[in-house]
Amino acid sequence: MIHCSLQKKLLAPFGEMLLDIDLKIEKGELVTLYGESGAGKTSIFRMLAGLLIPDSGLIKVGEKFWLDTLNSVNLKPQQRNVGFVFQDYALFPNMSVRENLLFALPKGKNKQIIKDLIEIVELGDLQDRKPENLSGGQKQRVALARALVQKPQVLMLDEPLSSLDAKMRIKLQNYILQVHREFNLTTLLISHEIGEVIKMCDRVFLIERGKISKQGKPINVFSNKQISGKFQFVGEVVHVEREEVISVVTVLIGTNFIKVVVSHEEAEVLQNGDKVLVASKAFNPVLQKVN
Amino acid sequence: MIDWEPLLLTFKLAAVTTVLLVLISIPLSYWLAYTKSRIKPVLETLVSMPLVLPPTVLGFYLLLVFSPSNSFFGGWLQEFIGIKLVFSFPGLVFASIIYSLPFMVHPIQAGFSGLNSKLIEASYVLGKSKIETLFRVLLPNIKPSLLTGIVLAFAHTIGEFGVVLMIGGNIPGKTKVASIAIYDEVEALNYDTANIYSIILFIIAFCILLMVYTVNGGYLKKFWK
C-alpha cells in the first residue's frame, strides 16, 4: 500500500496555493488524479518521485518510508523505485530506442526484460531509431517501456495520452492496461479525459486547488447522481442559433455534433465554450455493437 | 628560411591550454548552469572579466602575483613547488587559461541551460547518479556547445598577445609565440617574415572557424549519412 500525506506551498497560476493532500492507494490499483491545470497534480507526482521536496509530509510505500519530514527521512529519486513517464516523454535524444531502454537497466541485470518490453509495446522495427525520428505515439510507447525496465513499485504517468489522436489514444490505453496487469503494478495516472478515466481506473481523486475534493469510483465521482437508465453526456457548446420561436444549440460531444432545441430563455445563458450536460429521459436507447 | 619555433610554441600553448580548460570548464559550467547559489553572479562576472579587460591589465597583475622576488605567492611557488610562473611556459599556460576561460565556459554553460531539465530528472528517476547523468546524458547532448567551446578557446589562445607579452616576455623557444614573433619582425622591419607568420595564422583561424560552423550547421552530418 502507498500512503502519502504531503503539504507544500506552491505558486499556482492564480496565486499562492497550499497543496495539502492525503492519498492511500492499494497495491495493484490503477488510480487517476483528475483536475484542472495548476491544481497540483504534477507536483504530487514530482514529490512522490523525489524530484520536489514538500514542506512537510510522509510517503510510505509498503513498509518502507520514502519520506518522513518529522524524522528527516528523504530518499533521493535514485533510491525510490518509481517509473515516471513525463508529459513530454523526456527521451534521451542521443540514444536510440533500444539504448534508451538499456540505459534504464540497473547494472548486472538480465537484458531479457528489454527484449520483452520492446515486444509488448511493439517497437521491434523501431528499436534502432533515434527519438527525433519517432511520432508522438511511438515516443510515448518508448517512454512507457523505459519506465518499466527497472520493474518499479509505482508507475506514474503524467498526462500520457493528451497529445495523441483518438485512435492512438485507445491503442495506448490498452498498452498501459496490459503492462499494469502483466507487471502487477501500482499505477497513478494524470488525465483530463473523463472517458479515459472511467475506462481505465479503479479509483479517481478529484484535485481542486491543491486539495482532494472527491474520491471514489470514477463513474460515481463524475455523475452527480446515482447511475440510472437515462442518457447523459457532457459536451461543449459550439454554436447557438436563434430561430423564430426556438433556439438551436450545437453541442460537441466527443467528435460528434448534436443539435438540441431549447427556448430563447434557456439559450440566453449559454455561450460558446460552455460545458453542458445533454440528457434525455423517457425513451429506451438501442445498443448496437459496431466493429 | 623562417623560424618555425614560434608557430610550434603557439600550437603547443593552445593545445595544452585547451585540454586543461575542458577539464576545468565542464564542472564550472555545470555548477553555473544549475546552481541556485547567491554567489553565482559574482563567479559569472569573474569568468567574463577577460572579455572586457585589456589583456595587459590581466598580464600586469599576474606578473605581480607570480613574481618570485616581489610577491609572497610567487616566492612560495618557486621555493616549495619549484615552478616559476613568470617568463616561463607554465606561466603562459596559466595566463592563457584565465584569458580564454569565458570562451570555453560560456558555450558549455549555454548548452547545459538549453537542455530540457526533464532529461536530468528522468535519469535520476531511472536510478542514475549525477556523475553518470553528466557523462551519459548531458555531455553527449551538448556536443555542439562543447565543440564550439573547444575551438573558440583554442583559436583565442592562438590569437593572444598582451597577456603573453606581459607575463611571458619574448624568450625564443620558451615564450616567444607567433603573435609576438610577428610584432618582433615588424619592429625589425622584416616584413616578409612577418607576412608569412601572419598568413599562416590567418589561414589556420579561417579553417578552424569554418570547421565549427560546418559541423554545427549539420552540413557534415548530411554527407556522412
Describe this structure in words.
The complex is a heterodimer of chains A (291) and B (225). With 291 residues, chain A is an alpha/beta fold. Chain A folds into two domains: 2-222, P-loop containing nucleotide triphosphate hydrolases (Rossmann fold), CATH 3.40.50.300; 231-280, Beta Barrel (OB fold (Dihydrolipoamide Acetyltransferase, E2P)). Chain A has eight helices and 15 strands. In chain A, helix 2 runs parallel beside helix 4 and helix 4 (136-148) runs parallel beside helix 5 (166-182). Chain A is globular. The two termini of chain A are 39 Å apart. Chain B is mainly alpha-helical and 225 residues long. The model of chain B has no long low-confidence stretch (mean pLDDT 88). Chain B has one domain: MetI-like (MetI-like fold). The radius of gyration of chain B is 20 Å and the shape is globular. Chain B has helices spanning 5-34, 40-52, 55-66, 72-81, 89-114, 117-125, 130-141, 143-158, 162-168, 178-187, 191-216, 219-224. The interface between A and B is medium-sized, with 22 and 16 residues.
